[in-house]
Amino acid sequence: MTAITLDGVATASAVKTELIARVTELRAHGIVPGLGTLLVGDDPGSRSYVAGKHRDCAEVGIESIRIDLPASATTADVRAAIKDLNSSREVTGYIIQLPLPVGHNENAMLELIDPAKDADGLHPTNLGRLVLGIEGKLSSPLPCTPAGIVELLRRYDVPIVGRKVVVIGRGLTVGRPLGLLFTRKGLDATVTLTHSRTVDLPEEVRRADIVVAAVGVPHLVQADWIKPGAAVLDVGITRLVDPVTGKGVLTGDVHPDVAEVAGYLSPNPRGVGPMTRAMLLGNVVKAAERALL
Ligand SMILES: Nc1nc2c(c(=O)[nH]1)N[C@@H](CN(C=O)c1ccc(C(=O)N[C@@H](CCC(=O)O)C(=O)O)cc1)CN2
């Protein structure tokens, strides 16, 4: 058996096509959505993700505003940039690209975001709304990677209700909010959130119908950990250097042999990453649409 590929590029492209129609409608009502990004430092991964976010905005008709600060930026500089983004009229939603360089307190910076402009759903008020299970008109933006994972599964009709999900990694942008999302009414999965102190991780993973690997350990998840037919989402990515060619290679958390056992597998790259970006655009559009309610 070879797993069905959960194609993030094609699915994100379908999401973006739908968003173009909604942005056109907003513009017809005089509302121009604008995404701001705040990047601190010169991490190549973060630079590439931010560049991708601006390209996506141009594709769907969202304006984008970029603030890049050098690695030497102080906490006062970051606070000042956040203040500018909170007050900017063009910026209807924004993100602080994570991780911030060592020495910056990420949680303290996230708390400074105006929750109404939080395009990542990572402000405590919005995470709190996710915990409270507030949906509908007052729902908060969902963190982009968890939302992208669920959307990818949905669009491939992978059953979620009542299924056992094992998430590897309890980070802020993926594991913790994903556990909350999967257990929401309507999705109704049973989630095990694992981490570096989990005892016998392979045995936990063997029970799962859906496995999400988000730790950044190359090829951690092995084929003999996977229940035949399970859906496997490879989220963590590491930039390794090929010892022969000397070129950088992006390597996911899931070993390629998993494709022979799983029912569905998201590649990495070209799986969850593009969905993360598409969900960000969706959050910006949704926030702008609130102005029409
Ligand atoms: N403020 C945030 N910071 C971070 C988040 C987040 O959701 N909000 N998530 C990750 C990084 N991330 C988004 O910012 C992200 C990761 C991957 C991709 C992506 O498209 N990846 C491509 C490969 C691109 C490459 O590395 O060359 C793929 O998977 O095909 C987009 C966004 C941490 N920080």
Automatic annotation (TrEMBL):
<keyword id="KW-0028">Amino-acid biosynthesis</keyword>
<dbReference type="InterPro" id="IPR020630">
    <property type="entry name" value="THF_DH/CycHdrlase_cat_dom"/>
</dbReference>
<dbReference type="Pfam" id="PF02882">
    <property type="entry name" value="THF_DHG_CYH_C"/>
</dbReference>
<dbReference type="Pfam" id="PF00763">
    <property type="entry name" value="THF_DHG_CYH"/>
</dbReference>
<comment type="function">
    <text>Catalyzes the oxidation of 5,10-methylenetetrahydrofolate to 5,10-methenyltetrahydrofolate and then the hydrolysis of 5,10-methenyltetrahydrofolate to 10-formyltetrahydrofolate.</text>
</comment>
<feature type="binding site">
    <location>
        <position position="237"/>
    </location>
    <ligand>
        <name>NADP(+)</name>
    </ligand>
</feature>
<feature type="binding site">
    <location>
        <begin position="169"/>
        <end position="171"/>
    </location>
    <ligand>
        <name>NADP(+)</name>
    </ligand>
</feature>
<feature type="domain" description="Tetrahydrofolate dehydrogenase/cyclohydrolase NAD(P)-binding">
    <location>
        <begin position="143"/>
        <end position="291"/>
    </location>
</feature>
<keyword id="KW-0560">Oxidoreductase</keyword>
<dbReference type="InterPro" id="IPR020631">
    <property type="entry name" value="THF_DH/CycHdrlase_NAD-bd_dom"/>
</dbReference>
<comment type="similarity">
    <text>Belongs to the tetrahydrofolate dehydrogenase/cyclohydrolase family.</text>
</comment>
<keyword id="KW-0378">Hydrolase</keyword>
<keyword id="KW-0486">Methionine biosynthesis</keyword>
<keyword id="KW-0658">Purine biosynthesis</keyword>
<keyword id="KW-0368">Histidine biosynthesis</keyword>
<dbReference type="InterPro" id="IPR046346">
    <property type="entry name" value="Aminoacid_DH-like_N_sf"/>
</dbReference>
<feature type="domain" description="Tetrahydrofolate dehydrogenase/cyclohydrolase catalytic">
    <location>
        <begin position="6"/>
        <end position="120"/>
    </location>
</feature>
<keyword id="KW-0554">One-carbon metabolism</keyword>
<dbReference type="InterPro" id="IPR000672">
    <property type="entry name" value="THF_DH/CycHdrlase"/>
</dbReference>
<dbReference type="InterPro" id="IPR036291">
    <property type="entry name" value="NAD(P)-bd_dom_sf"/>
</dbReference>
<keyword id="KW-0511">Multifunctional enzyme</keyword>
<comment type="pathway">
    <text>One-carbon metabolism; tetrahydrofolate interconversion.</text>
</comment>
<protein>
    <recommendedName>
        <fullName>Bifunctional protein FolD</fullName>
        <ecNumber>1.5.1.5</ecNumber>
        <ecNumber>3.5.4.9</ecNumber>
    </recommendedName>
</protein>
<keyword id="KW-0521">NADP</keyword>
<comment type="subunit">
    <text>Homodimer.</text>
</comment>
